[in-house]
């Protein structure tokens, strides 16, 4: 009699498990059908996408004089150096990213004439020109590649050169 009670209790536990498993599957199916029926809204706030920085043909070029250099990062702003430029088309903020060489940063000063090309994007309610190329004193600097990603400078600092020389001599 004890074995029969044990077998019956295992059958009840198995039925409860199967019932819960089916309930979970049914709820997942219902959720996925509901998600599929909702209309998709394209996001316009992201700088990358079908209308984003990966389309260099849509770049605009703006020129003017530097009014302000913004180096301090604030919340809800792009990381890196930003220029407030006043030009014939009006005032705009150009985002240059954190990867500019020291030489380029030193050439940027208030009142310096610059020409930037890139795409205007709204990030957190603020309009920025996400710069692809920057021209200073007739020299063009590539800031973002054709896919919209920031380009790192190929120049290495003296500290990294000295450290690599020390590492080679230690071998």
The fourth-level CATH homologous superfamily of the largest domain is Nucleic acid-binding proteins
Overall structural class, as computed from helix and strand content, comes to alpha+beta
CATH class of the largest domain: Mainly Beta
> Strand sequence of the main sheet, in spatial order?
1-2-3-5-4
The CATH topology of the largest domain comes to: OB fold (Dihydrolipoamide Acetyltransferase, E2P)
What's the overall average pLDDT, rounded? Answer: 79
Tell me the number of strands.
6
Give the distance, in angstroms, between the N- and C-terminal Cα atoms. Answer: 80 Å
Oligomer: single chain
Number of self-contained structural domains: 2
**Rg from alpha-carbon coordinates:** 29 Å
CATH architectural label of the largest domain: Beta Barrel
Shape: rod-shaped
Helix and strand run = HEEEHEEEH
Q: What's the helical proportion of residues?
A: 25-40%
Largest sheet: 5 strands, mixed, barrel
Give the percentage of residues in beta strands: 25-35%
Q: Count helical runs.
A: 3
